[in-house]
Amino acid sequence: TDTHTAPAARRLPADLPQRIQHYIGGTLVDSVDGATFDVLDPLTNETYVHAAAGKKADVDAAVVAATEAFENGPWPRLLPRERSRVLHKVADIVESRDARLAELETFDTGLPITQALGQARRAAENFRFFADLIVAQADDTFKVPGRQVNYVNRKPIGVAGLITPWNTPFMLESWKLGPALATGNTVVLKPAEFTPLSASLWAGIFEEAGLPEGVFNLVNGLGEDAGDALVKHPDVPLISFTGESRTGQLIFANAAPYLKGLSMELGGKSAAVVFADADLDAAIDATIFGVFSLNGERCTAGSRILVERSVYDEFVERYAAQARRVVVGDPADPATEVGALVHPEHYAKVMSYVEIGKHEGRLVAGGGRPEGFPHGNYVSPTVFADVKPDARIFQEEIFGPVVAITPFDTDAEALALTNGTRYGLAAYVWTNDLKRAHNFAQSIEAGMVWLNSNNVRDLRTPFGGVKASGLGHEGGYRSIDFYTDQQAVHITL
Ligand code: NAD
Fold first, then answer.
1. Helix, strand, coil: what percent of the chain each, to 5?
2. Span between the terminal Cα atoms of the chain, in Å
3. What ipTM was estimated for this complex?
4. Considering the chain, what percentage of its residues have pLDDT values greater than 90?
5. Is 265 a catalytic residue?
6. Which of 67, 91, 155, 336 has CB atoms 3.0–4.6 Å from 329's, for a disulfide?
7. Catalytic residue (one of 105, 125, 173, 265)
8. Is the sign of the CA dihedral 310, 312, 313, 317 positive or negative?
9. 450 CA to middle of ligand 1, Å?
10. Closest ligand 1 atom, CA of 222?
11. pTM above 0.95, yes or no
């Protein structure tokens, strides 16, 4: 449609790195065997940089550096206030470079620049939040009158392995780095291989903020090489993982022989439930944003919309019209609302679901590559109506700008549909009936529910999924708990 802008000539960000390296023990290094992998520009699918392809030997070196920093370095022994100061400095630096970060993230991922900017600011806020939390941290003491005083000695665990996905890379890295470092651990980060560019900035940011050498280490590489070696390393007692449920299952099994601490933020197929009494204007705006923001490459995307029958036809018509107005364009253009998907492999996957959807539902918007975009990983915002609950596009995570709309007649049916997938990450409920809103929300099998609201995060609340969407919750003090041991010390009086 005419709201789609033609892609401008490809402009490369200034000062792109010549190559992307590991960062081990305070030094930028190539892989031991010199291996690299190609990183693609999502607008041209041409290689724009080579990144070091880490294997076991590289992970081993990073774990040695992190172990040395944990056992003999100052970081785990600093006062919380001292660590907090460093983390606030990290936040200041990230904030001051938000435009550059957004530029690089947009270039590497294809995310719309205005949304990438929001993610950069959220990364700074993640550091600030845990910097504050660690100073306010209080632990329990218990008194048995006349007999004992018992207290909790909270301590960092050691080397934390952090494995992250490509959808909002820098922000998701910060969500793990913030609490892992605030609590005094040292880390080895393995970022996603589709998008290693923004992660390469951490080394400079941490050096400038005064983080001691060896506390932060970065190993790039493929999941089955570098990620796998980190998961199977005997000296890495913790793995915090965000990615696909299938990968999570594999990591769970691979970590089992070592009985590692695991935190898993996995996939989703979250429902937005719209009752007839809802504010339809607000519900439409929010559910459009809920699945098309971040190119639909969002774990908490509201990728199924369930609509009460009496407003169903009106909703579908208005929703489809609004989806057609979503502006697809060059990710670097501030007017763009949906950019290019991250990688040709992911593009092929999303496009295959678009084709499947044409047999499973009624196509009312989009349905393939937008006109005027012959190259790059562009997908029109795509809407299928009348989707049955056994359809693959209802059950499986697509992770792109594709949404399934399904009618319902009763609250009970809406609940069964909401809970009728293997996932349980998020849900969104739209109704003006107060009692129904709370009763319905509390019956949903999902880690997070938003009532009459978009996905707005309060960093103190639990974040995470149930069922196939995750294991354990982070957010607020839960993150502090994951990255620390709480040792009980008992004293007889
Ligand atoms: P992915 O599982 O393919 O990869 C995630 C990370 O795991 C990458 O760094 C990858 O290299 C690594 N990896 C792959 N195989 C591995 C192995 N065998 N051992 C160790 N590491 C391995 O996921 P993705 O495609 O990068 O990300 C998209 C997925 O992430 C979606 O399912 C999305 O819902 C999910 N996600 C979840 C959340 C959340 O908070 N719940 C947030 C963002 C993304």
1. 40, 20, 35
2. 79
3. 0.97
4. 98
5. yes
6. 336
7. 265
8. positive
9. 24
10. 11
11. yes
